[in-house]
Amino acid sequence: MAPAQRTRPGRFRRSTEFLSTASWLYPLKGIYYFFAHPFLYPLLRARLIPCLLLSMFVLTNLFLFTYLPQVAFLMIFHGPLAWVNGAFLVLGEGAAIVALLFEAFFVDETLVDVFDAVLINEGCGDLVAQGRILQSEGSDPVKQLGKPTTSAVYSPFSLRQIAEFIFFLPLNLIPVGGTPAFLILTGYRAGPLQHWRYFKLLGLTKKERQAVIKKRKLRYMWFGTVALLLQLVPMLSMLFLLTTAVGSALWVVKLETTRLESESDASAAPEYTDDPV
Hints:
By secondary structure, the protein is an all-alpha fold.
């Protein structure tokens, strides 16, 4: 009995560590981190008003002219659930339109700055320095961001991703399981793009990038699914776009810490020599 009792704290610690580092938590951690670090606020203010107005315009028109017809059609298959699934359908359409019209073209530079600033604040400035000049005299991480020395793209605009997003929208027509399937499938495709900037800073080739994505494909799927779910919140898509970039950077900090510790342990291991007595 005593050995079993002694193992419980260890199991609890492992379970707690697993939950605290689960990939799906990072978009949520990004929300808390963003509001806890005021140096990030100016990056939101620069884009908030135009994106908020655009989101309001798009969603208002979609709900006015397309919500009830879609609910009426969904009633055939879903019954009362049609009101909920119809809302998800319209929000998904709105997210795709807003991304196509605004976010993919005008916000990417801001996302790069958010991502890089968090990395600097968390002690990964050397990684950021691989892709841009750092101004050490800056009073906060955002003010330390200098000009990029290489192509600075947070997540490349993907017409294929937009097309797949629209293609998967009809999954919401399937009762009960359709909406979760839509979120998971689109999250599966979108998740790896959240680390595009990280891959570029590491200087990975296309083959190396694909190998990393394959290794973490399920973790990227859950990260992308939660990130997409946040994007469907009316009027707050811009805010959650930035906080997801924060969460993505926090995940990178964890990955880099693990990678550097592994490299340090490997270099510290004594070299084997055959020294017979």
